[in-house]
Amino acid sequence: MFVLGHSILGPTLVDKIRRGLPMRWLVVGGLLPDLIDKPLYYSLVALTGKRGIELGLISGSRTIGHTGLFLLLFVLLAMARRSLSLTAIAWGIASHLFLDNLGDAFGRHDGTPTAINALLFPLLGFHFPYSPFHNVGEHLASLRNWYVLLGETLGAILLAMAIRRRLRK
Q1: Structure pTM?
Q2: Measured between alpha carbons, how far is 62 from 70 in angstroms, rounded to an integer?
Q3: Which of 38-47, 128-137, 159-168 has the highest mean pLDDT?
Q4: What is the DSSP secondary structure assignment for residue 53, as one 8-state letter?
């Protein structure tokens, strides 16, 4: 899943379950795992010339921000602060993790660690899923996968509908 899937599709699904959460914070939460993990991984690739398992713990673009521990941190912060914004961020993160795991269930059958390995880190071992991509270009090329394309298409449709509703007001 890419930007439209995580920023529009996930938060829209959450909004159907939990009405009243601020959409802007749902969107932030929907994007937050990738805003942390993708730059972290690709910066390490650029700095070291290594990739995947060669990098050690940060072996892919689903690491710290894609863990249940990260989600739990925001849930606990939201509860402690009784903050609607933090609650929305937590729900956005949950939508991101759900969509990643749903996508992997349909799309990854090569035996490599998947999003569930990141989600349950460290319960399934002290390793994250490693990236099958050699570079950002290959990662972007995964838009050709039907489930990624479907998520982006649904996100684009939902965005167009939201813009249209807003223009009518």
Answers
A1: 0.91
A2: 12
A3: 38-47
A4: G
